[in-house]
Design goal:
mainly alpha
Length: 126
């Protein structure tokens, strides 16, 4: 049997570290990499919720929509839309021939803000 709290803590700590990394990268104008870490932040906190709800290790998936669906959380439509936006940026780190169009700086700043808010909201629900 797995130690559920240890698993949850592992995923949350990783998400916290990835959020810090996203912030640093985006401040240095490393947009694709920064957005990749925004995706990782949300992926990991969703995996903590998976552990909590399913009492098992999370699946090896990067699909935020799927992971959100495995939780017992009711998401607002705009949050689910945002998960779809973040999904575009997780591919860049895994597939070298995929290069999403980057939005303007003001939109990138908003994505970081929304990542932070969604992370904190999800963390509070654990």
């Amino acid at each position: 049997m797995i130690d559920l709290q240890k698993q949850i803590d592992y995923w949350v700590k990783g998400a916290e570290e990835d959020l810090i990394t996203a912030d640093l990268l985006l401040k240095k104008k490393r947009y694709l990499h920064g957005m990749f870490f925004c995706h990782l932040t949300i992926e990991k906190v969703l995996k903590a919720h998976y552990v909590k709800s399913e009492m098992d290790v999370p699946p090896r998936t990067h699909n935020l929509i799927y992971l959100a669906g495995t939780t017992r959380i009711e998401f607002e439509e705009n949050d689910l839309d945002f998960l779809g936006i973040l999904m575009k940026y997780q591919l860049e780190g895994r597939y070298p021939d995929y290069s999403p169009v980057l939005p303007k700086q003001i939109v990138i700043d908003d994505y970081l803000r929304r990542t932070r808010e969604l992370f904190l909201w999800l963390k509070q629900k654990l």
